[in-house]
């Protein structure tokens, strides 16, 4: 098995330069501490990973992501069909199926005013196919999302490989992720990430199988290793103020209306944290550096 550090160094060698979105920094001192816009780039990457994890809390939104015009309001056929649709317990999770994404049809409008394409492979397995539940075991292989503006300009790509495991009950869901991520940036080298974190979602009302997510809180804990040329930051991920998902935030990808994530570590001999702070439905989070 490839070791964790070997794996991320190997990813770093495979990178190419494409494009990204410029992001705001509403906290003080970031640019004086982290060069090359790393605060904003790490913050934007963390934001994307949170949004992707939120969609991964149900299988339908894993296929048609939250925040797109095609986002599911109930368990329905997504943009891609499973290789083997058998679902022995009727919980919406196939016993063992592979989804092969192509764009189109997996091209989604309404994503930050532009278009989101998904290509690659997702394997979904029901951990207990004879008993209905919320869980699944997911394997991502070259699963790439690409954001394009309304003017058909590619902004950035995110490619994910690895696993996600979802478990839970009517009172909470737990999503554990072990992912290797390649994120592109405009005019800069790409970043390679080794992300291992656990998200705990606590709904404000009991969950129901085959139903969309209710509003609730998201607690995230784990690590994220970042490599981009000479940058190598090993960060501990926490949410000292839990993130709040608001199901009433519609027609927007930004459905978290409050909360704070901190990515703490040593950055070029400076101890501190990249801070991602959400402050309203439909609003992009702010990015900054704190000590």
Oligomer: single chain
Q: How helix-rich are the residues, as a percent range?
A: 10-25%
Global mean pLDDT: 87
Count of discrete domains: 1
Low-confidence runs of at least 5 consecutive residues: 1-32
User: Strand portion, in percent?
Assistant: over 45%
Give the structural class. Answer: mainly beta
- Please count the beta strands (DSSP E, at least 2 residues each): 12
Distance between the termini: 37 Å
Mind telling me the C-alpha Rg?
18 Å
Overall geometry comes to globular
Major beta sheet summary: 12 strands, antiparallel
Write the H/E string, N to C.
HHHHEEEEEEEEEEEE
Q: Tell me the number of helical segments per DSSP (H or I, 4 or more residues long).
A: 4
Quick recap of the structure?
The protein has 291 residues and is mainly β. It is built from 4 helices and 12 strands, in the order H-H-H-H-E-E-E-E-E-E-E-E-E-E-E-E.
How would you sum up this structure, described in words?
With 291 residues, this protein is mainly beta. The protein has one domain (4-290). Helix content is 13%, strand content 47%. It has helices spanning 4-13, 30-33, 38-55, 59-63; strands spanning 96-101, 107-111, 114-125, 136-148, 154-169, 172-185, 188-203, 216-228, 231-245, 256-267, 270-278, 286-290. Strands 1, 2, 3, 4, 5, 6, 7, 8, 9, 10, 11 and 12 form a 12-stranded antiparallel sheet that branches. Strand 8 and strand 9 form a beta hairpin. The longest helix has 18 residues, at 38-55. It is globular.
Layout of secondary structure:
Layout: H1 4-13, H2 30-33, H3 38-55, H4 59-63, E1 96-101, E2 107-111, E3 114-125, E4 136-148, E5 154-169, E6 172-185, E7 188-203, E8 216-228, E9 231-245, E10 256-267, E11 270-278, E12 286-290
Antiparallel strand pairs: 1-3, 2-3, 3-4, 4-5, 5-6, 6-7, 7-8, 8-9, 9-10, 10-11, 11-12
């Amino acid at each position: 098995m490839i070791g964790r550090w070997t794996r991320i160094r190997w990813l770093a060698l495979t990178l190419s330069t494409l494009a990204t979105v410029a992001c705001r920094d509403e906290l003080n001192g970031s640019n004086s501490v982290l060069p090359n816009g790393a605060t904003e780039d790490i913050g934007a990457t963390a934001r994307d990973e949170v949004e992707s994890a939120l969609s991964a809390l149900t299988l339908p939104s894993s296929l048609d992501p939250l925040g797109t015009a095609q986002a599911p309001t109930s368990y329905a056929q997504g943009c891609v069909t499973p290789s083997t649709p058998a679902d022995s317990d009727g919980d919406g999770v196939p016993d063992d199926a592979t989804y092969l994404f192509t764009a189109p049809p997996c091209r989604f409008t309404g994503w930050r005013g532009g278009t989101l394409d998904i290509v690659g492979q997702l394997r979904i397995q029901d951990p207990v196919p004879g008993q209905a539940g919320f869980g699944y075991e997911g394997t991502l292989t070259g699963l790439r999302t690409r954001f394009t503006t309304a003017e058909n300009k590619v902004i950035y790509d995110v490619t994910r490989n690895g696993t996600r495991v979802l478990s839970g009950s009517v009172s909470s869901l737990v999503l554990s992720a072990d992912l290797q991520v390649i994120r592109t940036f405009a005019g800069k080298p790409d970043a390679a990430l080794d992300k291992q974190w656990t998200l705990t979602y606590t709904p404000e009302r009991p969950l129901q199988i085959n139903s969309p997510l209710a509003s609730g809180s998201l607690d995230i804990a784990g690590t994220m290793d970042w490599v981009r040329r000479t940058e190598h930051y090993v960060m501990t991920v926490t949410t000292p103020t839990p993130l709040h998902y608001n199901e009433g935030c519609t027609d927007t990808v930004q459905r978290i209306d409050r909360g704070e994530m901190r990515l703490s570590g040593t950055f070029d001999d400076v101890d501190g944290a990249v801070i991602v702070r959400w402050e309203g439905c439909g609003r992009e989070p702010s990015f900054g550096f704190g000590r």
